[in-house]
Amino acid sequence: MSRVRTLLRTAVGLKFVVAVTGLVLFAWVAMHMLGNLKTFLGPAEIDAYAAGLKTLGAPFVPHGFALWGVRLLLLACLVAHVGCAAKLVARNRAARPIPYARYVPRESTFPARFMLVSGGILLVYVVLHVLHLTTGTILVDPFVEGKVYDNLARSFRNGAVALFYVGAVAVLALHLYHGVWSLFQTLGLDNPDRNRKLRAFAAISAIGLFAGFAAVPLAFLAGTLE
Ligand code: HEM
């Protein structure tokens, strides 16, 4: 335990935690996006898929057990990811208490400088999203538990809600583009010979996630899905 504490006092240790938890969150987000695409197969498919998530592991584990296990794992990863990232930012700021008179970034890209802001926006988005589509407290009326397709249709026929989602997943794509690239660097996988390929992988996965997530609200808004 004391070794873990010692590691978490170093920048390398903090970066490692941010990278590994980021990888778990990235994998879950990719699965969520692929699952959402079942909406295009119709109400029966997406509703059965959502119901299936609740009975995951049956009959060996009680109803909802595996789902709650995944939820707790994700929450732990999110807390560790945000906590260690915040600590790294605070350390960097403490190392330069007097800001640059005029900061002109030469190497960093826009997504890299936007990480703190995009991370904050995503945190707010996840809270609103759970209140919207998991508990049905906001943005959808009436909300019917288990009727995922109808809840989505009722929500995304409203242009403001659909565009809010598209904006949020654009922010997610920017966050992931830099996050995936940083992950390769933290894990020591970057190398001048393959950096172009690693950057391309980061870009393709960010664009793919954006397109996959945005497709559902845009399809309801355009009337392709009804
Ligand atoms: C257009 C994009 C998205 C759509 C249509 C969508 C749809 C949904 C739906 C229908 C649920 C409820 C599932 C159920 O109760 O059975 C859900 C839950 C959730 N979504 Fe999304 N989602 C989108 C994007 C995202 C993104 C980008 C994130 C994370 C950054 C995210 C994180 C979550 C979380 C944390 C839950 C709660 C899971 C749980 O209750 O266990 N979603 N989403």
Structural notes for this entry:
There is one protein chain. The chain has one domain (2-222): 3 helical TM bundles of succinate and fumarate reductases, CATH 1.20.1300. It has nine helices and no strands. Helix content is 73%, strand content 0%. By secondary structure, the protein is an all-alpha fold. The protein is globular and about 55 Å long. It has helices at residues 2-7, 11-36, 43-54, 65-95, 110-113, 115-134, 148-156, 159-186, 195-222. α2 (11-36) runs parallel beside α9 (195-222). The model has no long low-confidence stretch (mean pLDDT 90). It binds protoporphyrin IX containing FE. Protoporphyrin IX containing FE binds next to α2, α6, α7, α8 and α9.
The number of distinct β-strands equals 0
Total count of domains: 1
Please give the largest β-sheet. Answer: none
CATH top level? Mainly Alpha
**CATH topology description:** 3 helical TM bundles of succinate and fumarate reductases
What spatial form do the alpha-carbon principal axes imply? globular
Q: Helical residue percent?
A: over 70%
Query: Strand pairing plus helix content: what structural class?
Result: mainly alpha
SSE order, as H and E? HHHHHHHHH
Enumerate the spans where pLDDT stays under 50 for 5 or more consecutive residues: none
Tags for this model:
single chain; 226 residues; mainly alpha; 3 helical TM bundles of succinate and fumarate reductases; globular; binds protoporphyrin IX containing FE
Which SSEs are present, and which pair or pack?
Blueprint: H1 2-7, H2 11-36, H3 43-54, H4 65-95, H5 110-113, H6 115-134, H7 148-156, H8 159-186, H9 195-222
Helix pairs in contact: 2-4, 2-8, 2-9, 6-8, 8-9
Bound molecules: protoporphyrin IX containing FE.
Protoporphyrin IX containing FE (HEM) binds at residues 29, 32, 36, 50, 71, 122, 126, 129-130, 133-134, 148, 152, 165, 169, 172, 213, 216-217.
